[in-house]
């Protein structure tokens, strides 16, 4: 049995909330990694460790970019379902 559009939209809204929470946490993680990288390299002079933190920063930034694209695409699909239901 196929889910009704209302059920699908409700599930998608729940997913979107989870994705947005992940995005929020990712942004906070990116900011913290940037701070740590500067502290480790500039104040403590540990270039090797700062490079590793920078690698983590880049990975986190890629995650953030991808989750934002996912959110945007998921919202478009949710809105398409809503419009079909109305139309």
Helix count?
Answer: 2
Estimated share of beta-strand residues: under 5%
Q: What is the C-alpha radius of gyration, as a whole number of Å?
A: 19 Å
SS class: mainly alpha
How much helicity do the residues have?
A: over 70%
Mean pLDDT: 94
Tally the structural domains: 1
Alpha-carbon distance between the termini?
Answer: 22 Å
Q: Spans with pLDDT under 50 lasting ≥5 residues? A: none
**Main β-sheet, in a few words?**
none
Number of strands: 0
Overall 3D form:
rod-shaped
Order of helix and strand elements from N to C terminus: HH
What does this protein structure show overall?
This protein is an all-alpha fold. It has one domain. It has helices at residues 5-43, 47-86. It is rod-shaped, with a radius of gyration of 19 Å. The protein starts with a helix and ends with a helix. The mean pLDDT is 94.
């Amino acid at each position: 049995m196929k889910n009704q559009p209302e059920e699908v939209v409700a599930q998608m809204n729940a997913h979107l909330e989870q994705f947005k929470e992940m995005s929020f946490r990712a942004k906070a993680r990116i900011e913290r990694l940037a701070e740590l990288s500067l502290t480790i390299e500039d104040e403590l002079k540990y270039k090797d460790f700062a490079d590793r933190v920078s690698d983590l920063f880049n990975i986190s930034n890629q995650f953030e970019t991808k989750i934002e694209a996912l959110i945007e695409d998921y919202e478009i699909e949710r809105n398409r379902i809503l419009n079909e239901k109305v139309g």
